[in-house]
Amino acid sequence: MEEFFQQFANGLAVGGIYALIALGYTMVYGVLKLINFAHGDLFTIGAYLGLTVLAALGLTEFYGAVIGVLLVAIMIMGMLAAIGAVLDRAAYRPLRESPRLSAVVSALGASIFLQNLVMLVYGARFQVYPLDILPSTAVSLFQVDIPVVKIIVLAASILLMAVLYLFVQRTRIGTAIRAAAIDQGAARLMGIDVNRVILIVFLIGPALGGVAGLMVGLLYGQINFTMGWTYGLKAFTAAILGGIGNIPGAMVGGLLLGVIEALGAAYISIAWKDAIAFCVLIAILIVRPTGLLGERVAEKI
Amino acid sequence: MKRIALFAVGLLLVASTAMAAGPVKIGLMAPLTGPWASEGQEMKQVLDLLSADLNAKGGLLGQKVEVIAEDDGGDPKTAALAAQRLTTKGVAAVIGTYGSSVTEASQNIYNESKIIQIANGSTAVRLSEKGLKYFFRTCPRDDEQGRVAAQTIQKMKAKNVAILHDNTTYAKGLAAEAKALLKGVNIVFFDALTPGERDYTAILTKLKAAKPDVVFFTGYYPEAGLLLRQKMQMKWNVPFIGGDAQNNPDLIKIAGKEAASGFYFLSTPLPKDLPTKESKAFVDTYKKKYRNAPSSIYALLAGDGFRVITAAIKEKKSVDPDVLAAFLKKGFKDDRGLTGRIAFNAKGDRVGELYRVYKVDAKGNFILQK
User: Fold this and answer.
1) Closest Cα to residue A36, out of A226, A197, A213, A201?
2) d(Cα A122, Cα B13) in Å, to the nearest integer?
3) Which has more pLDDT, A184 or A144?
4) What is the ipTM, given to two decimal places?
5) Nearest by CB to B202, which of A124, A131, A266?
């Protein structure tokens, strides 16, 4: 039983990161019906920029670990939001009136471009975050050891997701995003600047993805330029699992995927960990094609 | 077509006999560019030093020795081209190369052209099991590493052993090799992880539940570093042993000195730990010329290949590949090789145990275990 809870806790921590990245996929899909394949690479860029900022500015040395990391996180979110806006402007907006397939191809191209850009700037070898910026101790809860860093990461991702949920549900801009997600044409007729809404989506999604990259760097210490692919794929799976286009769905899907993987590794086989996660996805898509929470209210005409 | 081919071969023969009057040419096929470029560059530097030294002492057969280097880029396709170029240049033998798959791509080309090839970093078992007449290597084979791993684990008096690999040909082979050789212990765990991930806590938790006395991980250093680091965060104190793909200073950077301390790994001796007077003298000369010591043992193994072939040519006063190959397999013995004693068996594999056990100390240094 102890092992079960330990694996459950392991899974939740990984799942929190999947969920955070999944939000970027799900928001872009919700509004644009586009899978932003470059999202995983924005996550990688977040990890690398985090390392650069940490090393160049030494913020943790001046302000102490928690405030320093918080400052770095805010800077990374800002930078990634800017990159997201540029990406939208350069790769997606020119194709907005084209068939959806063109935008998907453009997303794949952007992904390859960004990945190679990171490789050119930072080199092909993996890089290492400075050790122990955050405390490396573990707390024991009911004989389950959970590293403090993981608790911080999980708490931070849940906090970010909650803020995002409130933002989308309670603010005027959030209402505009939801309106554009339902019907862009009608939203435009109601006086909503749809291009601005899309821009905001491309500010928020990459910012969250970038912060997830920073978290992975702080958690595991080792980053390389291809890491966005695996994490992107998992987060994409999580978004579909929860119901793509649905924000709480991305959170639930992410956490669930992390836990399924950990338990699958524990009780079936480690080498089959990814296969198990994808089998669950397929099973859910057969039973519930819209994903777990993806029940969209039928749009009234 | 056939006639042209025959003509070309004839021309080649004429050319190679004409060459015999010129300098003795030794080829080097090495990854001068690509992912292993630093290793390849060192190989060339070592051969340049050795050939300059030999020429200063009067050369071979009254001639100068010339090293002709071709770049294989660490890539099988480029290696096949490099091998074809070298076969047209009248080389008496070829030293190289590093990766097993890269060597494999060039083996038949050299064998068909009757050129002796002495590989220096290709450890896959199958390379010498093909029965190629002119293939040799100065590096050990993977099955020898499995043997040393099994011995080391048995010396630690472990009752329960966990073996973890990463499904690559090399790591899986080494894991299976060690498993088969481990007698009188329980293998409580045998499975693979997925390389390239960040979070291995699920695997570590499962490993911990199997309660091994020692864990043998046969994969590469990026995963090994993460495993060590996350193992420490879990407060799990179990000795880890790694294979020679974990012999890399970056392992310490990933794991951190604290987590890496006490980690054992198998490796051919590092240049700093080489046993003989000759190797120490050579490392000193190398340091003087290139400012730092060679970091890779494979560069020195290339040097050994060069020493072996030039010594054989000197002894037999011939560059005939049949004479040389027969001599290397029977009767050749070099007690003063850069990496120790060198002799070959009938398959062209080096005889003798080369693997050592290293332990990481608290400062992150690799310390040779006696």
Assistant:
1) A201
2) 50
3) A184
4) 0.81
5) A266
